[in-house]
């Protein structure tokens, strides 16, 4: 019992410690450009004793071997008993195009109509375009795409689409500003694309460093506010 009390006391003391030291984070560049631009200055102001190192390379880092504190990852998580994870975001995908493009090429009324359009697609890891899987109720549509452009940056595809170059699949948080400005509109809004979950992955230690906990808590704050805005 005495050991349990001592451990509980150590845990409480650890949680009360002020965040400090270097925080190493790996994340996709698009996530950094859209989310971190506003969040990082707030974090630095709130926690002046923490310095940040961001790795925006597309590779999946080995958190333990490379001494990273956090990695932001999209989609499925690897099975690794040494890691823990916290869900930070649910991305909703949709098809978007500029009003000027739709005025010039016409508005698709059915997914089959997409085959007559310039499609801006996400580049898969194995090469080629990531398939667009559309669903309306119980009706599912999936066909091989002939992409006019493929890139491994949804943010870049959204920007190119906003200039009138074609129809792009992108996430709600990436296109939000373009939609607000009227630069992009939703295409086939009755058809849903599979969503994707964003995870914060970190070493599964019993005692989480205060700097790590502070960053994860601020991520929760940011996405909680975004959910309230969209509600």
From TrEMBL:
Entry protein name: HTH-type transcriptional regulator ptxR, putative
Which superkingdom? Answer: Eukaryota
Keyword Cell membrane carried by entry: no
Question: Which key words tag this protein in UniProt?
Answer: Lyase
Listed CDD domains: PBP2_CrgA_like
Similarity comment: Belongs to the LysR transcriptional regulatory family.
According to the UniProt entry, what is the EC number of this protein? 4.2.1.1
**Residue span, LysR substrate-binding domain:** 18-222
- The keyword Nucleus is annotated on this UniProt entry: no
Q: Which PANTHER family does the record cross-reference, listed alphabetically?
A: HTH-TYPE TRANSCRIPTIONAL ACTIVATOR TTDR-RELATED, HTH-TYPE TRANSCRIPTIONAL REGULATOR
Organism for this UniProt entry: Ricinus communis (Castor bean)
One Gene Ontology molecular-function label: carbonate dehydratase activity
